């Protein structure tokens, strides 16, 4: 039951908004009593925290699956971006923006937990691109991973519209890859940009 509540609450939070959804809404959607929800979650903040943790784990799992498919470094970035686009396609307001605005403590905890994993993923992708001849050998991997992370964090924190944030994220990815790419990498980037825009 606990997992079912997290799953249903997660969908409602993303569809309607973390602030707008009440415990009554979740109970009504699940045809259960509010008392049942409080049996597992003492308050709405704890439920939000658990749904964001579960969401983060699900995203990590999907990213691992994408990485395991052995795309080249540039394709991998676009596949991950495509996954996020599909996952949040029907959402109006950026989940990160909502959390930061209404539940800053939960947002900060989420950022802290995801920051190290994102940084590691970015570094691994850059290293992979260098080995594949798509990114230049002379770049500082740590610095470029941090530069990209700062860009993505800024977009997530400051762009309210989910649709608009995806456009900014695509531009940030192009900016990030162009800064690192070899001539071979530029050709691969242009190919992926065309495919991404068409779909």
From TrEMBL:
Can the keyword Ligase be found in this entry's annotation?
Answer: no
Spell out the InterPro entries in the cross-references.
Answer: Homeodomain-like_sf (IPR009057), HTH-type_Tx_Regulator (IPR050624), HTH_TetR (IPR001647), Tet_transcr_reg_TetR-rel_C_sf (IPR036271)
Give the matching PANTHER family. Answer: ACREF/ENVCD OPERON REPRESSOR-RELATED, ACREF_ENVCD OPERON REPRESSOR-RELATED
UniProt keywords (A-Z) are:
DNA-binding
What is the protein named?
TetR/AcrR family transcriptional regulator
| Gene3D superfamilies the UniProt entry points to | Tetracycline Repressor, domain 2 (1.10.357.10)
What are the HTH tetR-type domain coordinates in residue numbering? Answer: 1-59
Coiled-coil annotated spans: none
- Point out the DNA-binding stretch(es): 22-41
